[in-house]
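Hi R.,

Quick one: here's the PepSY domain-containing protein sequence you asked about.
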Amino acid sequence: MRIPTTLLLGTALLAAPALAQTGPAKSNAAIKTAHTVDDGASRGGANSFTQAQAREHIAKSGFTNVSALTKDDHGVWRGTAKKGGRSVHVGLDFKGNVATGK
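And here's the predicted structure, written out as tokens:
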């Protein structure tokens, strides 16, 4: 049985978009977002940041001396840091928002 060339070409063109959608596994999207300082309440949720990633994210948001980071019962990384020469309480939620205060 001989298959016409146009049928083969048409099938290949229809299959190409499906093949193009496969790619590498998604990484933690929150890490790739801008480093935001929310200054509001941190939102609870399933936080996939490691302690090292949380510390780095808070530091890239303009804080120094990030220390004493622990994850609370709501999945928010909490600790202390310095900004503008004063010590503040910081929190990093699952979306990557950095909040100051308790």
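Residues 5-20 form the longest helix (16 residues).

Cheers,
M.
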